[in-house]
Amino acid sequence: MKNNHGQHSFFGKNMLCTLKSYEFESIGRFGRMFREVSPLYTNPIEVNKLGAPGGPMEGTSPPQLTNDIPLGMIFFGQFIDHDITFDTQSNFSSINNPVEIENTRTANLDLDCIFGGGPEDEPFLYDKPNGRGLYLLTGKTNQNQGQAAKLEKHDLPRTGTETAIIGDPRNDENRVISQFQLAMIRFYNANYEAIKTANPHKSAVEIYEEARKLVMYHYQWIVVNEFLPLLCGSQIVDGILGSGRKYYQPCEKPFIPVEFSVAAYRFGHSMINQELKLQPSGDIHSIFSPQFGRGFEKIKNDKQVIHWETLFNFDGTYQRAEKLDTKLAAILLDLPFIQSTNSADRSLATRNLRRGQSFLLPSGETIAQCMERDTAEINDVKNLIQNLAQTHGINIDSGTPLWFYILAEAEEIGRMDRSGSKPGEGLGPVGATIVAETIIGLLEMDEESYLGSNRDWFPTLGTDGNFTMKDLLTMANTAVDL
Questions:
Q1: Which terminus, N or C, of the chain has the lesser number of Cβ atoms within 10 Å?
Q2: What does pTM read for this prediction?
Q3: Among 444, 401, 435, 399, which Cα is nearest to 415's?
Q4: Virtual CA dihedral for 84, 89, 91, 93, nearest 10 degrees?
Q5: 288-336 pLDDT, tens per residue?
Q6: Considering the chain, what is the average pLDDT of its residues?
Q7: How close are the terminal C-alpha atoms of the chain, in Å?
């Protein structure tokens, strides 16, 4: 029999809902979007070949770039990921049951990575009690120890050992994500100050709640109206917003599907450039260079300060992300910070493939069939995959790991806009549907989000009811450190 979403089911609809309620909502915040299909098994030797340096996934030099996707948007995708997921329990060497793995972040786009548990639960994130108000700390207001005053305003608040004082330590793991965390803090502080100035009678807590909600709504607006259309395509996003979700269907509470977290949302690994610059006239650096920052350390000189027009579309001169395809930058297939004699441990591609296998993910072809994608379309993607595999002597005839299928689908079909598909410019229909349905679903099931609480809302900042990443970063850049 089929359930109401066209998927084959061994249970009736009510039984499925009961199982979901028990598995996803009582135990954890991870689960499966497609519960009734069998997992794929791929010989580990073939998995290692697929992701190995010099194999079919090693990118070319010079890299192939997208036409219109800012490189900064890929790092923004990492920021979103940190906002909704944090798995500290799974590993490659055993089978991982998603319903037994705790997600230590809320499955909401609520910016808990910025606000933490709020000023009452985590007061160390906020300015010292001095009657000024509940501003979030920056490097300047924290007066970072051992850092030049001119650099403090460009850095996160830090302890004397350079540890960032933020809601999620992962948001200090590279220079871009660290600086974006600071931009969000400054964006909140600017809105807090504006509300405080306009409403001097309100208490600090009232201003905090109003500013937090305003910041959260505008962030969510960018996710839905700028990030998702760029990476998933307007055709897919408009279809979900217009006709509803077909595959991400929690009964009561949201959960993170492993098809999303372990496969589809790892698309950004294909789009990260091996070399980039932080300033318009600055030098080009490797993403793992000391100049770019290896993470978890303070800014040491002016050249490490990011100018956002180099990473986002301010005036058309921004750096483009690499094409979304089956290739990764060569350095990602031999990660310099992984201390292991096993080459499979040092390849990000192989790690992704092993993780998918450990979570018992179905093949990409199986998921495409569950979504009732056209057979000819599936065959076109499969032909690309088989040609790549056979050229390198790899046997994956039994099926394609979901993550690799999604990359191949992006290369073959790509982003589906109103004007048609654009290979390499974004996710194809299977990957885009998993990503967009999950993110939109998380918002729709959150009673504090704008899609879950007030669908009449539109941005009050920006221009004519629209608000973009450029607007957010401009406001953050011009905010006064208070």
A1: N
A2: 0.93
A3: 435
A4: -150
A5: 988 887 789 999 999 999 999 999 999 999 999 999 999 999 999 999 9
A6: 92
A7: 62
Task: Report helix, strand or coil for 410.
Answer: helix
The 10s digit of each residue's pLDDT in 243-298 is: 999 999 998 889 999 999 999 999 999 999 999 999 999 899 999 988 887 789 99
Q: 323 with 66: CB under 8 angstroms?
A: yes
pLDDT digits (tens, 9 = 90+) for 24-74: 443 458 999 999 899 999 999 999 999 999 999 999 999 999 999 999 999
What is d(CA 479, CA 329) in angstroms, rounded to the nearest whole number?
36
CA dihedral 115, 120, 123, 128 (to 10 degrees): 110
CA nearest to 236, candidates 415, 371, 99, 457: 415
* Helix %, strand %, coil % of the chain (to 5): 45, 10, 45
The helix or strand, by DSSP H or E, that contains position 385, with its residue range, turns out to be: helix 375-391
Given the structure tokens 């509803």, which residue do they identify?
Answer: 244
Token representation of residue 467: 């608000």
Token reading at 289 = 């260079």
Distances (CA, A) of 148 to 140, 182, 302, 304: 10, 17, 10, 13
Q: ∠ CA(282), CA(284), CA(287), 5° rounding?
A: 125
- Report residue 321: phi and psi, to 5°: -70, 160
